[in-house]
Amino acid sequence: MSDDTKQTQEVKAKRTAKNSVFLDLFQDKKNLMKLYKTLHPEDTTATEDTLDIVTIDNVLTDNLYNDLGIMVGNDRLLLLLEAQSSWTVNILIRILLYLAQSYHEYFERTSQSLYKSTKVKMPKPELYIIYTGNRGRKPDTISLSKEFFGGADIDVEVKAKVIYESETEDIINQYIIFCKVFDEQRKLYGMTEQTVRETIRICKDRNILKEYLMNREMEVVTIMMSLFDNEQIMKTYWKDMENTLTDKIAHKKDRETAERMIKKGKMSLEDIADYVPALSFDELKEIEAEVMQLA
After folding, report:
1. Contact criterion met (CB below 8 Å) for 133 and 87
2. Is 87 helix (H, G, I), strand (E, B) or coil?
3. Contacts of 290 (CB under 8 A, 6+ apart)
């Protein structure tokens, strides 16, 4: 194997790969129209010009998820959130926050004030979750009241339709299959460029997002590859935080041990230092002073 090949294999694919493709795929108005027609085949009046992507500002702490907002004319707002292959009803909280943020931006964009007596106009919401894992016994619809409050009648309700893999050939189902192919290849080759290339090859052979992948193959590869992706940064950050917390807990236990030994008064500070070497002699004298003050 050549050095170039080895280097290629060592390059890790972005763990947000599927998310990135999700957004890139529907930047094309033709694909956006296909998505809308999948959800509303009965609408014969909609055109590409009546659909607009609404950028959803990230109101959460991480940005590893992709969420797509679509305005249909001036009277409907569609939110599509990707649940990926890990199922969690917490996505309902994401929907609630994004919906509130989307309405806030809509009122600003349309110069409508919430503090005037005139009733504002707002688009009707449609909420969808695209789940790329195996369906199992998961429901067609999930709701905030049922999942978090035992079905109680609550003052704020959120309901979302869940879209799973099906036997159809629509663009949403093709995207779900693309994600599953990616997961299968990742198990074989890890987070490498080979995984990305094989995913694209297999999907083109199976006529899955074929036109998109043929027209934007290089862009898709670029999107899916990164040496320093956000998840790795977050993983490193939380690892550092975990190590810091572990060190603090260990240090606290050492101080408590030293304090107990000093209170017993049977050992000198020099001997105690042998039992808790992580504590400096100055720190032991500080603990001793605190113990004597409390005595």
Report:
1. yes
2. coil
3. 259
Question: 271 with 194, same domain?
Answer: no
Tell me the C-alpha distance between 68 and 98, whole Å. 10
Comparing CA positions, the residue from 272, 275, 294 lying closest to residue 284 is 272
Residues 123-181: tens digit of each pLDDT: 999 999 999 988 989 999 999 999 999 999 999 999 999 999 999 999 999 999 999 99
Q: Are residues 84 and 150 in the same domain?
A: yes
Residue 179 belongs to what domain range?
Answer: 3-227
Residue finishing a domain among 194, 227, 260:
227
Residue 23 near residue 68 (C-beta atoms within 8 A):
yes
Q: Are 205 and 144 within one domain?
A: yes
Q: pLDDT digits over 251-291, tens only? A: 888 888 888 888 888 888 888 888 788 888 888 888 888 88
Amino acid making up residue 256 = E
Output the pTM of the full model: 0.71
What is the C-alpha separation between 88 and 102, in angstroms, rounded? Answer: 22
Residues 84 and 153 placed together within one structural domain of the fold: yes
Do both 176 and 75 map to the same domain?
yes
Given a contact cutoff of 8 angstroms between Cβ atoms, the answer to whether 182 and 195 are in contact is yes
Do 264 and 122 share a structural domain? no
Residue 168 vs residues 8, 57, 171, 217: alpha-carbon distances, Å? 36, 32, 9, 24
Q: Compute the residue count for the chain.
A: 295
